[in-house]
Design a protein that fits this description.
CATH architecture of the largest domain: Orthogonal Bundle
Strand content: 5-15%
GO molecular function: diguanylate cyclase activity; phosphorelay sensor kinase activity
Protein name: Diguanylate cyclase
Main location: membrane
Helix content: 55-70%
Shape: elongated
Subcellular location: Cell membrane
Order of helices and strands: HHEEHHHHHHEHHEEHEEEHEE
Organism: Halobacillus litoralis
Strand order of the largest sheet: 4-5-3-8-9-10
Distance between the termini: 86 Å
Number of domains: 2
Number of strands: 10
Number of helices: 12
Length: 367
């Protein structure tokens, strides 16, 4: 009977933790979490602890369960705020079951475990040792309490070792589940970022550009906003690679990426679409404003000394094609084609310039 109730507690605990970890993976509990997140996690832990008490073993007025595990978890990951929130809910829930000597000692038990956990988490030791020490201290405290409350040696001789084993098992499995879900989510986030990011420059790659452009174009249509697109290409970049090597060419691409990010607005979207070709999506930006940004990019690149790994300084220029939805074209789907055509025109008519397409007319600008 003892094993059945404790194993039921373990199963309920693990299932609840897995669901909780999956549903809160975007904002996992930590000591740097917001106060709202800490309080919310503490309340959930307190509720789970109260549910575990409903499936406890009864020895007259004394009940035995794993209510301390949720409190330990939030104390370990979130610190004092969620620990105290869950602890108070456990105390209140226990008093609702019955107000007697057992419930008073249960109060002392959960307070002691909470304080021990908060103290142990501050020690300079490995995570595994902290978990083991926390679970051991809680088992020791439980043993003293249960020996005082129960006088039947036969019951104690079976209950205490069973509780220790299952408490260790539940504790380590609980930590494993949380760490497993967090590692899995971190890996997933990493893979998502890598799938959307250019490995060399850290900018969006062409896949992310396509996704972002389609989404933003739809929003521009819905909100009746201007949307500008820049196509940027490094002039004579092949010559840079042939003269200085591909390693130095990569250095130029990285530095150009920094210039682009620092020149456009914080909410604009910069991408490397491949090779020496870059794009900038200018949100809610009319042609005149886009022209100013384009010229600023062109001038900064032209005047910027690019430092190679050899210590040598070189200068490069860029050509830029510009198109604007609701001004140069009324079809967002044609924006990419129009900007690409404008870039082609800039390359064919001298380079180091910005070209805008307006219907079938081309207007070139150069400082």
């Amino acid at each position: 009977m003892i094993l059945k109730e404790l194993i039921s507690n373990v199963a309920l605990l693990i299932a609840s933790l897995f669901v909780y970890s999956q549903s809160t993976h975007a904002m996992p509990l930590s000591r740097s979490s917001t106060m709202k997140t800490k309080i919310f996690s503490g309340i959930l832990a307190g509720i789970l602890a109260n549910v575990l008490m409903q499936y406890s073993m009864h020895f007259d007025t004394t009940i035995v369960d794993l209510r301390h595990i949720p409190v330990i978890l939030v104390a370990y990951y979130g610190g004092p705020v969620p620990a105290l929130a869950s602890m108070f809910l456990v105390i209140i829930g226990r008093f609702f079951i019955g107000f007697n000597t057992s419930s008073m000692l249960a109060l002392l038990l959960i307070v002691s475990i909470t304080l021990f956990t908060l103290t142990i988490t501050k020690l300079n030791m490995s995570k595994r040792k902290k978990i083991f020490l926390t679970l051991t201290s809680s088992n020791v405290i439980f043993t003293f309490m249960i020996v005082y409350l129960l006088e039947n040696p036969g019951t104690l001789s079976f209950l205490i070792p069973s509780f220790w084993i299952i408490s260790y098992m539940a504790g380590f499995i609980s930590f494993y589940v949380i760490e497993f879900v967090r590692r899995s989510q971190n890996m997933l986030n990493k893979y998502k970022a890598e799938a959307a990011t250019d490995g060399l420059t850290g900018l969006n790659n062409v896949r992310k550009f396509d996704e972002s452009f389609n989404k933003i174009a739809s929003q521009a249509i819905h909100n009746e906003e201007k949307l500008s697109l820049l196509y940027i290409d490094i002039d004579h970049f092949k010559k840079v690679n042939d003269t200085y090597g591909h390693k130095e060419g990569d250095q130029v691409l990285i530095e150009l990426s920094r210039i682009l990010k620092n020149t456009v607005r914080s909410f604009d979207i910069v991408s490397r679409n491949g090779g020496e070709e870059f794009t900038v999506i200018l949100l809610d930006c009319p042609t005149d404003r886009a022209m100013e940004i384009s010229e600023r990019i062109r001038e900064r690149v032209e005047n910027h000394p690019f430092l190679l790994t050899t210590g040598q300084m070189i200068h490069i220029t860029v050509s830029i094609g510009l198109a604007c939805y609701n001004e140069t074209t009324i079809q967002p789907k044609l924006l990419i084609k129009e900007a690409d055509h404008a870039l082609y025109d800039a390359k064919q008519t001298g380079r180091n310039k910005v070209c805008i397409t307006s219907g079938r007319e081309w207007v070139s600008h150069r400082a």
